[in-house]
Specification:
Layout: E1 18-26, H1 32-44, E2 53-58, E3 74-80, H2 83-91, H3 93-102, E4 106-115
Helix pairs in contact: 1-3
Length: 117
């Protein structure tokens, strides 16, 4: 009896090459109105065509551990094909409008950019 051996398909490198993760600390963290306004503003960014995938989130109710930072209020994570796509996002009029309309809501922003290896 003869068996044929099929080779496993080659692993395809994902097209996402740059991850842009931003954390926001609100001026008024107790204000649901402010939090919802920031979330709504962030969601307008989805219209920027170079964003491949985007998630907006708030602090999860997970186990408290020393390695978990629970000081922030809202975050967004975006995935881009490359640094050029992320640059288009940074300079895009929708992003500029978001900053203009929402910057008064936050007291601190931290950005973590990572590239796929």
């Amino acid at each position: 009896m003869s068996t044929t051996h099929k080779e496993a398909p080659a692993l395809v490198k994902p097209s996402i090459a740059l991850i842009h993760h931003v954390f926001f600390w609100l001026n008024n963290p107790e204000s649901e109105v402010d939090k919802n306004a920031l979330i709504a503003g962030l969601n307008t960014l989805r219209a920027i065509p170079t964003i491949q995938k985007m998630h907006v989130g708030v602090l999860a109710s997970t186990e408290k551990r020393d390695v978990v930072d629970t000081s922030w209020d809202v975050s967004e994570i975006m995935f881009f094909n490359d640094a050029a796509g992320q640059k288009v996002y940074q300079d895009h009029p929708i992003h500029m409008e978001f900053v203009k309309n929402c910057a008064h809501l936050w007291k601190k922003v931290l950005v973590y950019d990572a590239q796929d290896v």
